[in-house]
Design a protein that fits this description.
Elements (H helix, E strand, L loop, with lengths): L1 H21 L6 H10 L4 H12 L18 E6 L5 E4 L9 E4 L13 H8 L8
Antiparallel strand pairs: 1-2, 1-3
Helix pairs in contact: 2-3
Length: about 130
Amino acid sequence: MVKKILLLFVILAFGIGYLQVFGHRDFSQMSLAWDNYSNGGSFSELVSGIGAVISGGNVIEPDMANSKYANDVVYRWKDESGQTHLSETKPSVTHFETIRVGDLKLQTQKGLTQDEIDQALQPKNDSKK
């Protein structure tokens, strides 16, 4: 029984290694799937994230309001010369703004897939010669 379980783990390890090296999978995103789950995500989201990584996709990050950083605070203030400063530690000035990270509205862009990058880097064939 122990030999069968060990053999299963070895096969699984080789399969993951093969997909990482030759299948261009980003298994570092497994930790993102786990972080999403451990910060209040559902088990089905965890399984979906793992499935996305294995199939070559990306894990969807939660919005800031639901992330593990939602309750973190950033301080913003201006110095005497009018320069704006941001800090995670409370400043020693009297006038500053406290910003809760979960209240920020962020916009993200989807990155290009490896196929889209390869296609963009291919030389254009000019057939009008």
